[in-house]
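task queued by scheduler; priority normal; single chain, no ligands, no partner chains; default sampling; output format set to structure tokens
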Amino acid sequence: MITGQLASDRTTEDCDVIDYAPAEAMQAVERAARAVAGEIGLPDGWLSSQARQLNVLPDGWRNRRQQVGRFGKLHVYAIGRLDLLATKCYANRPEDREDIFAMQPTAEELDFIRTYLTMLRVPSRQANLDQVDAALRLVAALQEGMDDA
């Protein structure tokens, strides 16, 4: 939403953190997030590091990220459009599908997503293969919709 990839009226309950650099910064950032939550009434866990545990980001995502802002020593980035589309396809929740349809991926983006999903089958990624299969069906349906248009 901050980068304009999703509609400004789209809401979310949390902010996913996928990387801390350096890794040692994690505790300080999370401590600050808890303090901010208390000050302005955000729910516990509004800053979520759960996504860090997953190894499902497309290769090269750091090169496509967008800087959101610099706040002293804190530099904040958002993943790029391709990576957002890819991970939303993999997640494949109802709200993710709504976002994907709203983002209107191109044929080239769908090709990227298909390649990404195929890469997730590598055992070292530890991806949920049923989820990968469901996401591939979603991409096929999106592609078919483009072909029919």
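post-processing summary
- The first strand starts at residue 15 and ends at 16.
- The mean pLDDT is 90.
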